Each structure stands twice: as structure tokens, then as C-alpha cells.
TrEMBL record:
This is UDP-3-O-acyl-N-acetylglucosamine deacetylase. PANTHER family: UDP-3-O-ACYL-N-ACETYLGLUCOSAMINE DEACETYLASE 1, MITOCHONDRIAL-RELATED. Belongs to the LpxC family. It is an enzyme of class 3 (hydrolase). Transmembrane segments: none annotated. GO terms for cellular component: membrane. Pfam families: LpxC. Keywords: Hydrolase, Lipid A biosynthesis, Lipid biosynthesis, Lipid metabolism, Metal-binding, Zinc. SUPFAM superfamilies: Ribosomal protein S5 domain 2-like (SSF54211). Pathway: Glycolipid biosynthesis; lipid IV(A) biosynthesis; lipid IV(A) from (3R)-3-hydroxytetradecanoyl-[acyl-carrier-protein] and UDP-N-acetyl-alpha-D-glucosamine: step 2/6. Its cofactor is Zn(2+). It catalyses: a UDP-3-O-[(3R)-3-hydroxyacyl]-N-acetyl-alpha-D-glucosamine + H2O = a UDP-3-O-[(3R)-3-hydroxyacyl]-alpha-D-glucosamine + acetate.
Amino acid sequence: MTPLAPALVSETTLATTLSIGRCSVATVEHMMSALVGSGIDAAIIEIEANQGADTVEMPILDGSASEWVQAIASCGRAELSGDTSSATCALLAPLDRPLRVDDPKGTNGFIAYSPGAAADPDVCSLDVSVVYPALGKQQLCWDFDPWTEAGRAAYAADIAPARTFTFESELDALRAAGLAAGGSLHNALVYTASGALYSDQSRDMLRFPDDEAVRHKTLDLIGDLTLAPAAFHRLRGGVVVAHKPGHALNVAFAAALAAL
Ligand SMILES: [Zn+2]
């Protein structure tokens, strides 16, 4: 078995891909987000690839994490039995110093952590903002609390249903790269330059008409940060400000956290 770690990330274009040797698993972030959002600290993930294939892509489902959350709920959660004192989360102390990482892609995006700054010391406060020409600015201030039943229900209701999205201007490039081949327009919101939905889509598809994009970015952020061992145990009680997060920036922050 290979423990999750930021060092496994081999690709962050559009989705987060992990590689072990010559085997790769693409688009792991929605499943990871659903796991940690459902309060799962420890899980063994077994993935079956088609015979001879070195790369598998996690099912995109409806483009959100809701189906993962439902599947996890149907399995239930169990307390680890026996001596868990050696579990990773017990070994890693909460992060007691600020941490800031700027976007390695050179945008003005950044992720900054302030310890002890959350109004409620038992949650991790997230302040996520995105800016797109077509959508303007969307911001979400939301307390992540996978340690309580109410917090897990809030993740399932507020974050998990937000769908992945793209822009009409990027569709040709996506198709050329083969990345949207299995996707079609049923599991991604496609925004036009004016911020409306692409012609085949109706506004009924929007689950959060005002801010679905930043909610999905929050979903991705939670999933990617989970690459750092015991990430949210270490960030609990603090505030994470994520401005224009993306997979490369998220993974860089996870790597910086894991290195401390
Ligand atoms: Zn995503």
C-alpha cells in the first residue's frame, strides 16, 4: 500500500493525477474531498484498471462529489479499533505558525493559513475566492467541520453537490486534449463569455445559482489538501484563505504543509 502524499502528484492540469511507478490515477480530488468531508481519516482505496492500462481515471460521475458522499454514507463509518496512538493524525501536531504559498503558475493566487484565527477553535475556516472574466468574483467563507455530524451534513449540502465547470472558450482545447471525451456536457457546467450557461444547458442545472464555481473550487481545495497527512487535523482552529486556488497551487500548499 502507498500512503497518500503530495509527492505522488504527477500532473495538475485540470485535475489531480497521482502516479506510482508507471501507474497513474487521474482525477482523485473529488473522491478525496468526499472522504475527508464525510469524516473519514483512514481508508484503503483499491482501483481496478482495464487490463494492460497504466492509467485510470476516477469516475467523474455528475461532476460533483455528491455520489461519492452517498456511497460513503451507505458504507458507514467505523472507529479504528485497537491502539491508534501511532496513527498519522496522532503523531502530527497542529500547525502553530502561519503558512503561505503563492501559485507556482505565477498568477496572483495564493493560499495562506493563520493558526488560531477561526472564530470557532473546533473548525477550519475556509475563505475561498475566484475571479473569472465571465463570472466576476465569487467568494465563499465557510467553516469546514468534518468532526461533527452537523459539519459533515453541511459538507454534503453546501460543497459536495457543486459541479465542476469550464468555459466555452476552453472546450475546443479540452476536446483536442481528449480530456472531456467521456465528459460531455452532462457533468460539467460550461459558462459562456457572458457568464451564461452554454447553449445546451439550462440554468436548472445550476445547484447554487450565485456561486457554484467557488463552491466547486472549495470542494477541490479540500480534496487536494488531503494529500498532506492529517491536513485538516493540523489546520483545525485556523483560517485558510485561498485566492484563485487551482490544483497546482493546492498541491504546492499540501507539500509545504507536509514538509513542516
Ligand atoms: Zn473538481
